[in-house]
Amino acid sequence: MIERSGNLIVISGPSGVGKSTLVKKAREVLPDLEFSVSCTTRAPRAGEVDGRDYFFLNETEFEKKVQQNEFIEFAGVFAHRYGTLKSEVLSRLQRGADVILDIDVQGAKQIRQAARNDSEIARAAQFIMIVPPDMETLSRRLTGRNSETPESLKLRLAGAQSELSNFRIYDYLVVNDDLETAQNDLISLLKTMRMRSSLVKGEPFA
Ligand code: 5GP
Questions:
Q1: Of 14, 104, 113, 190, which has the fewest CB atoms closer than 10 Å, so is most exposed?
Q2: Atom of ligand 1 nearest to the CA of 106
């Protein structure tokens, strides 16, 4: 059997673009994908479960993990802090699992930076951005979502535009116009990534 290490799949996209739906579907279809559960200081939304959707921490607990160097990356998003734990990622890559990070552009930039000093991350990291077909569609979708107060909606729209302006940092763009097409595009992309020769360990054909 060919032994391989995993991909570190960074997926970003502005709120309202349908990223969570797309990632959820990909995980159903490709059960080998593992999801890195992030830490956050924001409050859980209805239906969110601690340890499954996020590790919900207070500011003190979050700061302690920063000080103890437990994060691969962390960032402030919409007045709260979010971070990716090393413990959610590194051992899984080693044993060959593909790990998905659903993180923002600041986090993606930090992973790019980390890849400069760490050959394992450099080999594993792949960057995907989910984008809307245009800004008008995104604005319409965000308005239709009732989880936002008017203030947070405004903040998120401005954030979306600035996030999207960084699209060239990413290796791949998946356009979410028609949901089913976007789902198929993302799944094809993730399947293709599993075939990367650079992930193969050792010399299996020697
Ligand atoms: P939400 O609060 O809607 O779940 O997420 C808000 C934003 O934070 C999303 O763009 C999401 O990708 C980003 N995010 C979630 N976890 C992390 C993380 O660990 N690190 C960074 N940098 N961003 C994150």
A1: 113
A2: 22
